[in-house]
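Translate structure to sequence.
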């Protein structure tokens, strides 16, 4: 099993002036420990609830990924996940290509239908109905794949019209940057994963095995090799999480069918302590 570190909280010791240095140190330490991916949320406010109030620190995702690219050499970099309504698709495709170019081929796109209505309404971001957001999600994925595939022709969908999908320079990653579609919706999301994506990201709860079975059936219906899709999940650790408890959780997820776990720290005043915990379990779970 591969481990990714998901940075979901920036409220650390030292306040705002310490965020940049702490994030750079954390990224370098994670890469040195053997973590293979670094991700950030694509939010503009903190989410509320257990992870912290909306007023807590949150960084814009793609600026942050560019910063992380400058402080790392090997890890895959992407959001977990971008809300499809936050950026025009052509701009989003270009952002990923730019990150891929400047990182030496280490960029990916994690994307979903978006859910954070309070954030969108607060910042004036259009937030249409659930049905329309899913339509926009599929069009955004199609536009990104078209631009990354070198097709400069027009794209005309129900919600998006692009007259020329020029993208230069093209990506270093081949055939295109890593593409993850996040969410566990059985009828729409997992069908889109089977049709377009390199990876899914679903919660590792009691119904996870069922969700993976649904994905497998979509793959069969579409003639896609299920085993070519990475099955990924995300969960949190806290300062109270023990090494043994983390190993048990990761082995359970591997037995369920997940090959990658993105782990985020919750309640750490210094994010490097979370890196130490992840690094301590990697030798034991790497072959799971």
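Result:
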């Amino acid at each position: 099993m591969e481990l990714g570190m998901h940075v979901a909280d920036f409220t650390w010791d030292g306040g705002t002036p310490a965020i940049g240095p702490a994030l750079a140190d954390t990224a370098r330490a994670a890469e040195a420990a053997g973590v293979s991916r670094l991700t950030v949320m694509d939010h503009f406010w903190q989410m509320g609830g257990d992870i912290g109030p909306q007023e807590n620190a949150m960084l814009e995702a793609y600026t942050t990924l560019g910063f992380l690219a400058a402080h790392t050499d090997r890890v895959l970099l992407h959001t977990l996940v971008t809300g499809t309504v936050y950026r025009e698709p052509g701009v989003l495709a270009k952002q990923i290509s730019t990150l891929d170019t400047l990182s030496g081929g280490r960029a990916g796109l994690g994307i979903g239908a978006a859910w954070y209505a309070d954030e969108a309404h607060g910042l004036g971001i259009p937030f249409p109905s659930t049905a329309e957001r899913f339509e926009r999600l599929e069009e955004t994925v199609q536009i990104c794949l078209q631009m990354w595939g070198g097709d400069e022709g027009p794209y005309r969908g129900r919600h998006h019209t692009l007259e020329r999908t020029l993208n230069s320079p093209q990506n270093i990653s081949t055939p295109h940057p890593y593409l993850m579609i996040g969410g566990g919706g059985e009828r729409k999301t997992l069908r889109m994963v089977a049709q377009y994506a390199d990876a899914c990201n679903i919660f590792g709860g009691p119904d996870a095995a069922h969700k993976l079975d649904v994905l497998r059936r979509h793959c069969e219906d579409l003639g896609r090799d299920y085993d070519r899709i990475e099955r990924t999940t995300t969960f949190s650790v806290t300062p109270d999480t023990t090494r043994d408890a983390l190993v048990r959780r990761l082995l359970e997820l591997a037995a369920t069918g997940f090959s990658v776990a993105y782990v985020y720290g919750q309640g750490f005043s210094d994010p490097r302590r979370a890196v130490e915990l992840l690094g301590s379990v990697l030798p034991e779970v790497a072959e799971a």
